């Protein structure tokens, strides 16, 4: 029997984010949408840093993200974390952040199909 554990890590300093602490923050700047996972400490710092700007800003409602480039294969965060966890457990090299190679995705999919 095999058990895969996925941990959420702070994107700024790499610390493990325990359940109930920290958050995933989504924001838009200059027309680009971003998302970052932060521990409670870094989340407080982020909020303090943007608060002066938010206090004098206007709410505009929903701003859609820019469309992905043609052929872009997006994945949800949970799937990417699962692939990275599988890769680590199976001695497959993959970066902690960024794009995951198609060959690694294919190997993961084949392993899950078994």
From TrEMBL:
- Residue intervals of the Lsr2 dimerization domain: 2-61
Q: Which residues form the Lsr2 DNA-binding domain?
A: 75-111
Q: Which Gene3D superfamilies match?
A: E3-binding domain (4.10.320.10), Lsr2, dimerization domain (3.30.60.230)
Superkingdom is Bacteria
> Which Pfam families does UniProt cross-reference here?
Lsr2, Lsr2_DNA-bd
Q: What InterPro entries does this protein's entry cite?
A: E3-bd_dom_sf, Lsr2-like_dimerization, Lsr2_dim_dom, Lsr2_DNA-bd
Q: Which GO molecular function annotations are given, in alphabetical order?
A: acyltransferase activity; DNA binding
Protein's UniProt name: Lsr2 family protein
Q: Which organism is it from?
A: Cryobacterium luteum
């Amino acid at each position: 029997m095999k058990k895969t554990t996925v941990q959420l890590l702070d994107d700024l300093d790499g610390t493990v984010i325990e359940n109930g602490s920290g958050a995933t923050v989504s924001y838009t700047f200059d027309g680009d949408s971003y998302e970052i996972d932060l521990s409670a400490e870094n989340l407080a710092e982020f909020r303090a840093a943007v608060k002066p700007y938010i206090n004098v800003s206007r709410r505009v409602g929903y701003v859609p993200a820019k469309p992905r480039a043609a052929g872009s294969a997006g994945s949800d965060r949970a799937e990417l974390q699962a692939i990275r966890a599988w890769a680590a457990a199976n001695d497959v090299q993959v970066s902690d952040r960024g794009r995951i190679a198609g060959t690694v995705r294919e190997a993961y999919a084949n392993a899950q199909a078994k």
